[in-house]
Amino acid sequence: MHEGNSLKPAPQTHFMNRLLLYLELVRMEFVNNLAYRASYFTGIFNYSIQIGAYFFLWDAVYSGQRVIGGLNKEEMLTYVIVAWVVRSFYFSNLDRRVGTDIRDGKIALELIRPYSYQMVKFARAFGEAIFRMIFFALPAGIFIYLIRPFGLPPGWHNTLVFLISLLGSFVIYAQVSMLAGFVVFFTKSPSGVYKAKRVVMDLFSGLLLPISFYPDWAVKVIKLFPFQTVSYMPNLIYLGKISGAAAFNVIGLQWFWIAVLALFSALFWEFAVKHVVIQGG
Amino acid sequence: MALIEARGLTKEFRIFRRREGVLGAFKDLFHRNYRTLKAVDGIDFIVEKGEMVGYIGANGAGKSTTIKMLTGILVPTAGTMQVNGYVPYRDREVYTRGIGVVFGQRSQLWWDIAVIESFKLLRRIYDVSIDDFNWRLKRFNDILELDKLLYLPVRKLSLGQRMRCDLAAALIHNPAILFLDEPTIGLDVLAKSRIRDFLKEINREYRTTVILTTHDLGDIEALCPRVAIIDKGKMLYDGSVESLYSHWGQDKLEDIVKRIYQGHRPGSVKGVKKGGVGLA
Asked: Cβ separation of A106 and B106 shorter than 8 Å?
């Protein structure tokens, strides 16, 4: 035979090959989503209702008042629209996917592969996010702008930093979701975990309410967590409330949290896999 | 050193025993009763390169748990093992490059995409060169007749077709060891014999070591000169199928195994040395 049972690739090509694998997964998930685009119509409907409801809510709250929490009415309306449109990009349900893998025992099939489970999950979530960016967030943003024009970033600098910060939003959201999914290793009943993640993220990221609206003590507590770098801070960059060096500091802060969360989930994974009990079989 | 060398391999599970009723559930909130179950209890298992070993036992005997430890999925509670030069659970990401695994109950192919797309992804995962990939695919195709299946999504395949694809998928990187957990479960006679022929061919051609769990003793008769029998976590017998016959008389294999599961032991079998008979 012209070959034996060999393993071990040459180490220098290994890194490149992994990168190609993860890119391939991004592409695959993107194409996969293209095949299921019908399900996104219901999603678009949901988002329109959410954005519409918050729009009218804030419109009413601001009647007679000029500035609340450092934002005037027009800024607040822009904040709401941008926050929700952008969420359709960075959102991921990795908690549910990871939780299902663990609960159904599918995680066993992942453990027999020579790759990093977390990286594979991130890559696939990213493929899906890019799909939603192109087929959901962008059209939705343009469509809303046509019916009810909202404010645009004050300059190209803020636009650029805002776009960069969205990558951080995606990664942090995905990491927190992944950690929430890992909890299923121990609880075995996941639905409460998913809900908790969602409420914490929506509330403390500044999606539902800008952080400046919270009482002082709450703001101090929220500052200790990565959540506000997901929605609140990028939105302020968009509005021009954070500019220049301060805007770059937000990006720095995001990547600081990404490093912390990566360490955290690596340790969690290491621990969980040692204690894993595969369901079924 | 043997290709697979496990000594005193043990896996315990802690099982939470629920109390009955509302009051019981309430008590469980504060104090839980655990009971320890030894799924695998100090087994020794040594396999040389190129062997085909049947690993059998009644439901819940500990077969799958052993396979899961050998493939690096579960961490043993006690004992040592070295497979293909690695400690499976510790060196998981490197170790798994050299093994292929098929679970009869679960497909490892991506459900929604065409089979060929899964194969291409596996090529990336295992860093298989394009030449090797095409060569093996052609080779597998000759025996398993995959060409009509390659462009269908997995969810449209019958069980037999899916299993053929799963087998090819597990071998696309030419692993040193192939673990099969009930590969013929639910298959018709024709599909079974096709899969057996394929495994025989692969073993002959590449000297791939095959560890196979099954409830179908036809698999053992067709493929495995050596059989290991496990019951309640303990290794009851590990040796050639030949000597199993000679110890029990000229019975059918099925009858012999049935009697072993029921707890009968012929005096002579007790003394069979563990660790296998060099077959290679």
From this structure: yes
